[in-house]
């Protein structure tokens, strides 16, 4: 797996004039020796882009790239019609697992980071496990956190970055501070961020209590993020590092939308806490010899999501009612990567090698309290049969993954023609452990078997610089995803009525991805277009097998679907005029089907286009952006609720730097200028619990932000 690349000494004159937060520069004979250099299928966004687009929250990530969206229902990113654990997210090369308990709708994982702690954000489009391994079916979101070298220049031994903002969407205030220092060959960075706000507003009208409530439930949240890095440079070509990181999000919610026939109106509350912690040690080498570049990172990471709800029941069992659902994932891992550049005849070779090894433990537990008598339940207490508490629906599971990848970029005809074959081998092993709370769960029928498999993921990419500023490319790549612990081992059973069960015999999902496209022009006039088609096998899905004499209501099982296809097109363009005017265009479209059943997929977003025009001078600028989508009416059978109409939005933003780049920056934006009611298609559930307007996106909102570099 590619690791973050370290900064080294650069030419003094260059460094003195380099703006803060430029991408890290590596000391080497050629900047192409950066292990994490973006490929032709990668969109790289820097901290400057994040500031300029006023992106503080995962809901706003599509401002950076219209081809990616955030699914708030599953807390996951959607790329090319896939989300959840089919889009891999990493931070400094370390996986951020997507967690799901499978029965109580606790989902989280990929949003546990702070945008203000990032130096770069790479969006890697397409199905390709040849470098990243399991999970890269739709794409990869690769995050890299700030390094001291991102802030420091050679003329100063310290630097800082202060940011603050207010967003009317959730009435949130945010403050972030990053400080970097250098003492001879020792570098350090501390970054801290805090946010406080309320519920994210939708554009519906209708408060009150009960399931027909349209407005979002009242909520208050607190978010904090801490990042510390310490580096010791050695002889100009080596660097030792230590990183400590913690993210925490706490939210208190008044659940006014609970059923008023089951719960006393206004009695419901919910406390959600998401936390991620990480400790890591790193070693970076950039001195030539047997290898030109080498990187290693040894890490520990723990993620947890705890959702506690309380209320007062009106129906039997009456009285105090509490549920506390927890999922936790703890990982230990080692990532290694190396690069060597050499010539062989008339061809140049850039050889990249990487390996990934990790061990993890998944834990799930559902605590609770109600006024049910001891079983067996009879008469009015029959409802207690449906209340499963103080149990684990999945056993504690130990998992091991190992991956080894190799890639060789072969340059020919003065590097105008580049052929890149790649191959990755992955092996995984899931082993359920003795778990008291799982053994005492309803429907326990022994421990399931372990699940282990391996996969080879090849890739072949061809790039041709046909003429100056015109690059044509084509890529074929395979990808795979190992089944999750929940998909394998979930057992949520109500004997005689229903069950939701995993399948320990699941096979990994696999895919063949094809991309063809072109990159045109330069920073002043250019664009790109990509056509893609991905074919998936053994697509893991949950289906209802229907009732039988043992389970009279429902039987949900995980299975492998045989064939799924997703195809589409992505295009973007830009132009910058010497007069200060500029414009940009982006389009993303995808269509997906289960080709065996001829059924559409609900994870496919609607056709989306963005057109922007702006004007900027040295000290100020303004942009007007129009976003338009088509309607989405191609959805799965019996899920008409997931259909959405098209919409058109207008956003207006502006910025002011009164003393230039090194001074303060003030920004303001008005989003959804005409207060349009619209829906994010990938947010809508197939089976709703509330009216459709409750799932609408925010109406007209504004945001102001401040940035100061020292």
Automatic annotation (TrEMBL):
<dbReference type="GO" id="GO:0044718">
    <property type="term" value="P:siderophore transmembrane transport"/>
</dbReference>
<keyword id="KW-0798">TonB box</keyword>
<dbReference type="InterPro" id="IPR011276">
    <property type="entry name" value="TonB_haem/Hb_rcpt"/>
</dbReference>
<dbReference type="InterPro" id="IPR039426">
    <property type="entry name" value="TonB-dep_rcpt-like"/>
</dbReference>
<dbReference type="Pfam" id="PF07715">
    <property type="entry name" value="Plug"/>
</dbReference>
<keyword id="KW-0812">Transmembrane</keyword>
<feature type="domain" description="TonB-dependent receptor-like beta-barrel">
    <location>
        <begin position="223"/>
        <end position="673"/>
    </location>
</feature>
<dbReference type="GO" id="GO:0015232">
    <property type="term" value="F:heme transmembrane transporter activity"/>
</dbReference>
<dbReference type="InterPro" id="IPR037066">
    <property type="entry name" value="Plug_dom_sf"/>
</dbReference>
<dbReference type="GO" id="GO:0009279">
    <property type="term" value="C:cell outer membrane"/>
</dbReference>
<comment type="similarity">
    <text>Belongs to the TonB-dependent receptor family.</text>
</comment>
<keyword id="KW-0675">Receptor</keyword>
<dbReference type="InterPro" id="IPR010949">
    <property type="entry name" value="TonB_Hb/transfer/lactofer_rcpt"/>
</dbReference>
<keyword id="KW-0472">Membrane</keyword>
<dbReference type="Pfam" id="PF00593">
    <property type="entry name" value="TonB_dep_Rec_b-barrel"/>
</dbReference>
<protein>
    <submittedName>
        <fullName>Hemoglobin/transferrin/lactoferrin receptor protein</fullName>
    </submittedName>
</protein>
<dbReference type="GO" id="GO:0015344">
    <property type="term" value="F:siderophore uptake transmembrane transporter activity"/>
</dbReference>
<keyword id="KW-0813">Transport</keyword>
<dbReference type="InterPro" id="IPR000531">
    <property type="entry name" value="Beta-barrel_TonB"/>
</dbReference>
<dbReference type="InterPro" id="IPR036942">
    <property type="entry name" value="Beta-barrel_TonB_sf"/>
</dbReference>
<keyword id="KW-1134">Transmembrane beta strand</keyword>
<keyword id="KW-0732">Signal</keyword>
<keyword id="KW-0998">Cell outer membrane</keyword>
<feature type="domain" description="TonB-dependent receptor plug">
    <location>
        <begin position="43"/>
        <end position="140"/>
    </location>
</feature>
<dbReference type="InterPro" id="IPR012910">
    <property type="entry name" value="Plug_dom"/>
</dbReference>
């Amino acid at each position: 797996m590619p690791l973050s690349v370290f900064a080294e000494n650069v030419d003094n004159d260059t460094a003195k004039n380099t703006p803060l937060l430029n991408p890290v520069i590596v000391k080497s004979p050629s900047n192409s020796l950066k292990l994490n250099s973006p490929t032709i299928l990668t969109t790289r966004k820097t901290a400057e882009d994040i500031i300029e687009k006023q992106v503080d929250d995962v809901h706003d990530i599509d401002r950076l790239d219209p081809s990616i969206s955030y699914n708030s229902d599953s807390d996951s990113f959607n790329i090319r019609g896939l989300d959840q654990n089919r889009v891999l997210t990493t931070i400094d090369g370390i996986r951020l697992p997507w967690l799901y308990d499978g029965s109580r709708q606790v989902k989280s994982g990929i949003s546990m980071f702070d945008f203000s702690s990032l130096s770069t954000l790479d969006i890697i489009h397409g199905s390709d496990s040849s470098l990243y391994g399991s999970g890269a079916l739709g794409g990869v979101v690769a995050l890299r956190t700030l390094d001291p070298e991102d802030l420091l220049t050679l003329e100063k031994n310290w630097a800082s970055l202060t940011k603050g903002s207010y967003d009317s969407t959730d009435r949130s205030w945010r403050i972030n501070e990053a400080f970097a220092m250098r003492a001879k060959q020792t570098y350090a960075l501390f970054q801290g961020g805090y946010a406080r706000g309320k519920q994210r507003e939708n554009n519906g009208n209708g408060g009150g209590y009960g399931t027909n409530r349209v407005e979002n439930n009242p909520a208050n949240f607190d978010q904090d993020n801490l990042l510390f890095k310490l580096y010791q440079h050695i002889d100009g070509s080596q660097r030792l590092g230590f990183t400590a990181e913690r993210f925490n999000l706490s939210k208190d919610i008044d659940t006014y939308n609970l059923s008023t026939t089951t719960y006393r109106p206004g009695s419901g509350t919910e406390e959600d806490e998401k936390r991620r912690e990480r400790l890591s040690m790193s070693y970076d080498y950039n001195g030539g010899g047997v290898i030109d570049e080498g990187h290693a990172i040894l890490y520990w990471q723990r993620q947890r999501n705890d959702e506690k709800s309380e209320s007062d029941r009106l129906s039997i069992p009456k009285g105090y009612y509490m549920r506390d659902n927890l999922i936790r994932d703890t990982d230990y891992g080692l990532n290694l990567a190396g690069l060597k550049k050499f010539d062989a005849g008339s061809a140049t070779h850039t050889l990249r090698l990487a390996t990934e090894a990790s061990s993890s433990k998944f834990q799930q537990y559902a605590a609770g309290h109600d006024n049910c008598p001891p079983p067996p339940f009879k008469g009015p207490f029959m409802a207690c049969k449906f209340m499963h508490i103080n149990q684990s629906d999945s056993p504690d599971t130990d998992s091991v993954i190992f991956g080894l990848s190799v890639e060789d970029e072969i340059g020919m005809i003065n590097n105008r023609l580049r052929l890149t074959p790649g191959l990755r081998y992955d092996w995984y092993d899931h082993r359920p452990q003795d778990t008291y709370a799982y053994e005492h769960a309803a429907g326990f029928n022994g421990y399931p078997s372990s699940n282990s498999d391996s996969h080879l993921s090849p890739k072949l990419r061809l790039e041709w610089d046909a003429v100056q500023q015109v690059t044509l490319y084509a890529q074929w790549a395979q990808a795979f995803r190992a089944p999750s612990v929940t998909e394998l081992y979930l057992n949520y059973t109500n004997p005689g009525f229903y069950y939701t069960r995993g399948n320990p015999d699941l096979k990994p999902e696999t895919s063949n991805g094809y991309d063809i496209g072109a990159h045109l022009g330069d920073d002043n006039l250019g664009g790109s277009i990509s056509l893609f088609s991905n074919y998936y096998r053994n697509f893991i899905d949950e289906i209802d097998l229907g009732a039988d004499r043992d389970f009279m209501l429902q039987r949900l099982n995980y299975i492998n679907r045989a064939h799924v296809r997703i195809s589409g097109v992505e295009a973007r363009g830009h132009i910058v005029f010497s007069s200060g005017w500029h414009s940009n265009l982006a389009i993303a479209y995808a269509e997906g089907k289960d080709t065996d059943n001829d059924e559409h997929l609900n994870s496919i977003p609607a056709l989306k286009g963005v057109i922007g025009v702006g004007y900027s001078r040295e000290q100020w600028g303004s942009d007007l952006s129009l976003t338009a989508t088509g309607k989405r009416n191609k959805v799965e059978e019996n899920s008409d609720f997931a259909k959405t109409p098209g919409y058109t939005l207008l956003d207006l933003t502006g910025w002011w730097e009164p003393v230039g780049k090194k001074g303060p920056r003030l920004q303001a934006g008005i989003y959804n200028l005409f207060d349009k009611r619209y829906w994010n298609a990938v947010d809508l559930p197939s089976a709703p619990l509330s009216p459709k307007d409750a799932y609408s996106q925010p109406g007209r909102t504004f945001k102001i932000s401040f940035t100061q570099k020292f």
